[in-house]
Amino acid sequence: MKSRPVDVVEDGKYYINLLTSIHGDKPFEIRFVPNSNHRGFGSTSILRYGDYIYRAKLIKGEGVDKKAQWCRFNAEEFGRAIIDEFMNVSDYGVGCNVLFTVNSPNFDIMNTCVTSDEHIKDGGSINAQFIDIDAPKQIRKDKESLRQFKKQVAQSIKSFSVQPSGVIETKNGYHVYWFVSDGKPELFRHVQMQLVQELGGDKNCINESRLLRLPYFMHVKDPKEPFPVTIKVWQPEVSYSQKYLKDNLSELTDETLEKLIKKSESSQQTNMSSTRKDAVLELVFERINPVGGNEDKIITQCCMPDHNDKKPSAWIDKNYMFYHCQGCGTHLPLEELARELNWHDVLDEINRYDIDLDQELNKVKSNARSVKELIKDVSEQEQQQIENIAESVIGDFKNAYNQNINDRHVQYIFDIVTLLVKASEQEKPTLIPLEMGGGKSTIIKVFLQQMLRDSNDYGAVVVVDRIEDAKKLAEEINDYFGSDQHALALYGFDEDDCLDNLYENAKNNSCPVFATNFKYKCNHIQRCRYFQQGEIQKQYPVLIVTKKRISLDFGKIGKYKFFGEHDEKQRKLLLFDEKPSIVSIRELNHKQFDRYNDLIQSKMEKSETPEALKEFNKAVEYVESHFYDAEKRELFEAIDKDFYFSDAFQTEFRKQFPDYTREIFEYPNTLQNIIRNGGHKDVTSKGVKLITNVYQDYADISGFKTFIFDGTADMDLEYNHDKYRLINFEPIRTYEGLEINICDTISASRTSLSDSDKVKAFCDDVITICEQHPTSKVYIPTFMSNEDEIADYLKDYIQRGQVLLAHYGATKGTNKFKECDIVAICGILHKNENHYIAKAKAIYEQCGELLDDIDCTKYDNVRRFNDNRIEAVKLLDMLAEYSQEIKRSNQRNNAENVAGKVYVFHNDKLLLEQIGLKFPNCTISEWYPQNMIETAIVTKGNNPKQMAFIDYINECEKHEIWFDEIREYLDMPTKGFSKLINNDTIQDFIKSKGYVEIKDGKRKKLVKS
């Protein structure tokens, strides 16, 4: 065949004839991939199904579009589609790589146009066996060596014992095809490996969805030397059975099998612990007929139902957990074998993740002590003081929340006040796990008011979350005394109270005095709160700061200790009203690195301290190399554990960049921590990212008696608990009235909720909940990105006050949801994998433990860390966040057992099994949100049989429906119907409609429960 000028219709006919000679009427994918050096758009795939072509684009960093019908499959429209897409993806006139699937995917289970191995193995079609023979990389640039290599390969193909159906020449070698009739997926890889063993070729090119080059397009991996891909042999009439190929090719050697399995297979089974492998193999032993083996293999008779094995001819690789039969050619990971043969116990064991959260929690709680154990002696005067303060707290609490208070809650208030009054006797910082709704704000406020009233020398530093909280507490303390001289809220620049803005009509969003190294002449410095507060704070016994400021000043907190005209008084108490920033995660990408460096260097070049610039440039040089030569996520070690930026540098830097609210303010600390602590790097579509951590151990602060109110401290691994005193506070009450309804088959990830159809389906399920509970109020916490869409869809329910909506991060410190008796959670509280790696690294290094494996593996469709210490950090972090969201509802009432419901969905069964951790005696129930389940089926792949099943059940109003009746309606064979009806998503749909499966003799039916 010869290449021809572009003619849309003729080219359309040509490629239809070529592709249908392989696929017949079955689907195929053509993928247009830009040159690897091109940094613009990603690839595009088109997919043939019946009379139509579907299309989906891959945008780098964003993912793949859903498949959408594009044009008809005829010569003119298909020809135009190929040329248009080639031009769209082509890189500056060089062209693009055009590839196609040799085997046919199952269109019905595809969400996009991108074919995977599963799309072919699960209902697709094996059309050919093939190999990709390429010259070794070391000779590709030598034209004569390459020519000789291709000549030898061509001769080998020509003289090969089994005549190929097609031979296509590529730039560095050949693609060789043997068309097959009635090909089976279970035999495909065995034959692929035999071909590789005999003729050589790419050892990775043995999977079902492998893409090969489409003839008569250019090979453009090297745009300087494009090469036309041409057909040398094409005889579709030459076709074989897979059995013929298997029997006429050399039997696979153990060496070949081991090399190819190791090269081509990577699954969670390879990453299993030896204990779990043994557990899986023990279950497999019960299913097979083992006859021998060694420490690496089990030899057995084949267990495939269609193979009457008498040799035996099968074996299981214990290291790679793989099954291979030399007789019938079945070649499958044990997980796929178990799925094929319905070995449910084996599947459950393979997908079981080794982690014991109870063990981790028990380690923490083993450090907990009761107040009676810690406080032995209380004087009469102290007891009277404790009673006065505690009674005032209880009175204020009842008035503020208009609710009673139970005996355990009363005792906890007395215990906390006792600890605070006896603070001078405490040697370690104290963790107080008082749950939300326990009245910590009231306790802190009343305690400070009373202590200030009783002593003119009393002082304390209070750390709160937000500036608003600091202002409020200062105002409440000062109002109590009718004076503004008792408490000061210390916070940074605020443009609303800048006197320069107020009186001179300036537009400052940061202090111009600091920003110009004191060159700006401000007329209001002497009265400026921000400028003078460093000295003013010494006039106040109670200083209230945000946890961000205390984190920035960590290591210099001692400057807040003294107050009075001559610093003669001490603030001895350091009181956190919530968990401080112990582990801070810092991320730095190459773009930020370059931008910050340019900005800082340009500023410091003009400064009067050249040593500061030299010091900064040294740090930049240390870090820069980490942005290169990274291929995957990996740990990196500290460069210089003794490195610190000098005080002189810090002073100069803060002159140039005084606003601590801006990201660049923390940049030197990020560089310093990368150099001192190391971290890990991740490779994304946008480049390399460095991630490091800062661990601030508040147990190391000297000169203060430190108390931390943290409702989840008893499940938080960030604290080095050996250095703290954890107070043993059980939940104030039990939760018999709380029902947590979980759906563990639908993802609640941020990515999945970018699908508007899914969000609308969630809203429809919320509407169902509202209609079922018309007198209830529903609180919905969600991602900020979904808030507006949900608000618009549920606007009628929001306007009448039945639904209250907020995004994560905007719900802290508010009581506005306390009347809600239902919580419907939309979105998983998962930060990101890099966050949990860095956090775990910080935590375990404090204990002298190092991380090694930071990769993840899928278990039951959920990514989990291979190192279960990181997974424990992740799960406990998420569970703590969930418990906080639930407690924002009417469950914050700790006085009595309050009825309430929670609805939560995510496909992480392990997480949802533990969601009641902070709610003893609550009820966990299954939830089947009908609208989300139906949407999941519709958007997952437009499977016509599944859709027909849904339509039939939705339209059927019968109390009971026989399986035979449904199967006949769907026109399905018994085996196919059995697979359909046992699909997990279909099972959820059935339950969402209120049906249960009943066996009546040998027949089955669905019956309304």
Q: Mind explaining what this structure looks like?
A:
- The protein has 1009 residues and is of the alpha/beta class.
- It is built from 35 helices and 44 strands.
- 38% of the residues are buried.
- The longest helix has 22 residues, at 380-401.
- It has an 8-stranded parallel sheet with strand order 20-33-21-32-27-22-24-23. Strands 1, 2, 3, 4, 5, 6 and 10 form a 7-stranded antiparallel sheet that branches. Strands 36-35-37-40-34-41 form a 6-stranded parallel sheet.
- α1 packs across α2 (75-89), α5 packs parallel to α6 (242-248) and α13 (380-401) packs across α15.
- It has 7 domains: 8-240, Alpha-Beta Plaits (2-Layer Sandwich); 265-352, Alpha-Beta Complex (DNA Primase, Chain A), CATH 3.90.580.10; 363-486 and 540-581 and 701-727, Rossmann fold (3-Layer(aba) Sandwich), CATH 3.40.50; 491-535, no CATH class; 583-695; 738-929, P-loop containing nucleotide triphosphate hydrolases (Rossmann fold); 942-1008, Arc Repressor Mutant, subunit A.
- 38% of the residues lie in helices and 20% in strands.
The total number of structural domains is 7
Strand order of the largest sheet: 20-33-21-32-27-22-24-23
User: Based on the structure given, which CATH architecture of the largest domain is correct?
Assistant: 2-Layer Sandwich
Strand content: 15-25%
Mean pLDDT: 90
The description of the largest β-sheet is: 8 strands, parallel
Radius of gyration: 34 Å
| DSSP helix fraction | 25-40%
User: So, the CATH homologous superfamily of the largest domain?
Assistant: RepB DNA-primase, N-terminal domain
Classification by helices and strands: alpha/beta
Number of strands: 44
Q: Shape from CA axes?
A: globular
Given the structure, what is the number of helices? Answer: 35
Ends distance? 66 Å
